[in-house]
Amino acid sequence: MCFNLLVAPVVYAATGESFSHVQAWSLGLLGLVTLSLSTYLFFVMFVPEKF
C-alpha cells in the first residue's frame, strides 16, 4: 500500500492530477491481490503435490 502511494503521484505528474484516498487504497488493494494470486499460482504450478 505504501509503495503504491509513492508511485501513484509519479504516474499522475504529467497531467497535474492526483489520486484521492479511495483511489489510492483501491489500487493498493488491487496490487496486493494480484501479487498474492500470482504467488499462489506460482507455488501451485511448481509444487502441486502440496495442494
From TrEMBL:
One of its GO terms (molecular function) is P-type potassium transmembrane transporter activity. InterPro entries: KdpF. The chain crosses the membrane at residues 23-47. This is ATPase. The lineage of its organism: Bacteria, Bacillati, Cyanobacteriota, Cyanophyceae, Nostocales. It comes from Nostoc piscinale CENA21. Keywords: Membrane, Transmembrane, Transmembrane helix. GO terms for cellular component: plasma membrane.
